[in-house]
Design a protein that fits this description.
Number of helices: 10
Mean pLDDT: 81
Radius of gyration: 18 Å
Shape: globular
Strand content: under 5%
CATH superfamily of the largest domain: GntR ligand-binding domain-like
Low-confidence stretches: 1-10, 12-19
Order of helices and strands: HHHEEHHHHHHH
Structural class: mainly alpha
CATH class of the largest domain: Mainly Alpha
C-alpha cells in the first residue's frame, strides 16, 4: 500500500494556493493519475485513504470524493465499498472513442445526451426488472450524496454520475456499466456547461429539480415498474437536453 509520506514513490507535498474547489480536484486527480501511470502506485494497490488525501492536500472530503470519482470514471481505479479504492488496469476502448474534443460545443454535448437517452432508457427498464437490495441501497446512497451537495459549493457531478452508474450496474449486464465507465463524468453536461448557474431559477432550484427526476427513476426501479422506469429516465435525460438548449440561446 502506498503512503502519503514525502518519500520516493509517494505523493509530493503541494504548495500553498487559493482554495478553489475545481482547481483542487484537478490537482488531486493529476497527482494520483501521474503516480499510477508512472508506476509509483502499482495495479492492484490501494490508494491512500480519503483522510490521508484530505490531510495532504488540505481539502474537504467532498473535494477528495469528486477527485476519486473522476479517477474511477477514467478507468484508472475502482472503489470497493467498505474496503477502499484500488488501481486497476485500463481497458482498451477499441475503435470506438468519444474524446474531450467531442465535447467542444453545446451541440456535441447534446449529441451525447441523445446517445444516453437511447442507452439509459433501456438500462432503467432492465434495472427495474433485475435490481437487488444492494443496488437499491447504492442508488439511495448516491441520491443522498446528491442532496447533501446541493447546499455546498458543488456541481454534484460525482454523485450524479454514480447514480446513473448504479442504474447501469443494476441491469445485470456488464456492458452497460462498461460503457458508462468508458464515457465517465464527461457525459454529465455540467462538466462542460455551467447550466446550474445559468438557470433562471438559480443553482439550488436547478439541482433540486434534477434530484427530483433522479428520485422518480429510483422509485420506479424500486417498485420494479420497468415501463415507468424507462419513462422516468427518458424524461430526465430529455429535460437535461432541453435545459442545456435553453441555457445556451446563442447556440441555436
Amino acid at each position: 500500500m502506498s503512503e502519503l509520506a514525502p518519500a520516493a514513490g509517494t505523493l509530493a507535498a503541494e504548495p500553498q494556493r487559493p482554495r478553489r474547489q475545481r482547481g483542487l480536484v484537478g490537482e488531486i486527480v493529476d497527482s494520483l493519475a501521474a503516480s499510477i501511470r508512472n508506476g509509483q502506485i502499482q495495479r492492484g494497490e490501494k490508494l491512500p485513504t480519503e483522510a490521508e488525501i484530505m490531510s495532504r492536500f488540505d481539502v474537504s472530503r467532498t473535494v477528495v470524493r469528486e477527485a476519486l470519482s473522476k479517477l474511477q470514471a477514467s478507468g484508472l481505479v475502482e472503489t470497493r465499498h467498505g474496503i477502499g479504492t484500488f488501481v486497476i488496469q485500463q481497458r482498451e476502448a477499441g475503435n470506438f472513442k468519444i474524446a474531450d474534443a467531442d465535447f467542444s460545443t453545446v451541440a456535441d454535448v447534446i449529441s451525447v445526451l441523445e446517445l444516453r437517452i437511447s442507452l439509459e432508457t433501456e438500462a432503467a427498464g432492465l434495472a427495474a426488472q433485475r435490481r437487488t437490495p444492494a443496488h437499491l441501497a447504492n442508488m439511495e446512497a448516491w441520491l443522498k450524496a446528491f442532496r447533501d451537495t446541493i447546499t455546498e459549493d458543488s456541481d454534484a457531478v460525482p454523485s450524479d454520475f454514480q447514480f446513473h452508474m448504479e442504474v447501469a450496474r443494476a441491469t445485470g449486464n456488464r456492458h452497460f456499466a462498461d460503457l458508462m465507465t468508458y464515457l465517465g463524468t464527461m457525459i454529465i453536461p455540467r462538466t462542460r456547461v455551467n447550466t446550474p448557474q445559468q438557470a433562471p431559477e438559480g443553482r439550488v432550484s436547478y439541482l433540486l429539480r434534477v434530484n427530483e427526476e433522479h428520485e422518480s427513476i429510483f422509485n420506479a426501479i424500486r417498485n420494479q415498474d420497468a415501463e415507468a422506469a424507462r419513462a422516468a429516465m427518458r424524461t430526465h435525460l430529455s429535460n437535461s437536453r432541453e435545459r442545456l438548449r435553453k441555457s445556451q440561446p446563442a447556440a441555436g
